[in-house]
Amino acid sequence: MSRRKKILIANRGEIAARIARACGELGHTAVGIWTDNEVHARHLEYCDEWVRLPGTTNAETYLNIDNIMKVVKEYEIDAVHPGYGFLSENTLFAKRLEDEGVVFIGPHAEAIRLMGDKAVSKQIAQKAGVPVVPGTADAVKSVEEALQVGEEIGYPVLLKAVAGGGGRGMRVCEGPEDIKKQFEAVGRESLAAFGNGDLLVEKFIVNPRHIEVQILADKKGNVYHFFERECSVQRRHQKIIEEAPSPFIGDDEELRQKVCDTAVQLAKSVNYDSAGTVEFIMGEDKSFYFLEMNTRIQVEHPITEEITGIDLIACMIQSSFGEDLGIPDQEWITRTGHAIECRICAEDPITMIPAPGKVTGFETNFPQGTRFDHYLYRDLEVTADFDPMVGKLVTKGIIRSVALRKMKKALEGLLIEGLKTNIPLHKVILNDEDFVAGNYSTNFIATKRPQEKVVTDVNYTSIYRKLACIEARRMGM
Q: Which of 129, 220, 427, 431: CA 20 to 30 A from 233?
């Protein structure tokens, strides 16, 4: 074990707490950040040291490289873990740290640069022999060029921001008229969101499944996969339910091996050396194509940890310091059971629009096999300043039906008062016959429209009965 390191966690909320716990387990000092608009940050309870990052907006704090670098120097930080979001996939930030001799707990800056550009990453995938969705490898320069590509690969096509993410800068075009109508609008949206208005044109896969593979690499050239996750239940191209393994791949072990091996192959082509996720789009015929690579830890990493028993955050930290991961070979990594994650968000369950508010009450009563990564507490102010996700509810069962059963019970036992959440929407989805059968695609929300079946009437008698039972249990009654 190397000497104790000071690790700055350049993030907040549940992922900051998660990283802090891993730092403590490995014997390192977790340094947490608090800002002027989040002075009661709950994640600080898990940190050894606290640092103030002046400012009241993300631009002044979590996204301000210069200010974070000042903290790094002043507090003699050895390494920075960016979590996900914010600066986690920022090449400039990773390079600044590298130049200062500070460890970036993530891949090397060049890997972030190469895989962060969708056009470049697609070219790399093609060179590595990884199947890609038919379309342009480089950004199209005009509507006319986009129309020509559409005719060549066939409609429907997807107009897609080169530097996009989070569902923004993407539009499906059913024919030439849609391209003419949408091209400039998508370009403007992309420029405003990402500072880059360049667009790609890709073949749109009908009823696709979103399959991703978790990989982890060390600095000795070893790259391992930790099997796949399915993230097909999405709204506005943003995931809300994930599960591992994929119910669509099911018992097709040959396909599973092929997808996972392909992810490893791509990671090796850029000398990847940290945790990352290779995302694929899979058609109804089970053909799959490279979508993008996320050069960071994912929101949904807990379900992979649950089925493999491996702490990905701890391994990520060890890898960054050049330490041995304790993994003899790929065959040593096995999976057991099935895990499901529901993202709990402060949003209207019908419109799925963020709904900031104040938590006036919070209680949990979960079945065995439940994990809840969160930062909820009574009097928490959920503001529009940050992502609306307030927690990740995870259940594991020996088979998928057991994990589903536990998740339904866990959702019933999660009581968040004073805040609109998407819990009612999750309940509808988990009872949908197609979801229960594992028969769903990324079109699930659009076609099944579970939001229209959400019941928002609150049964206060039931809630108070549950709260009374919880309190009685605490008192040993």
A: 129
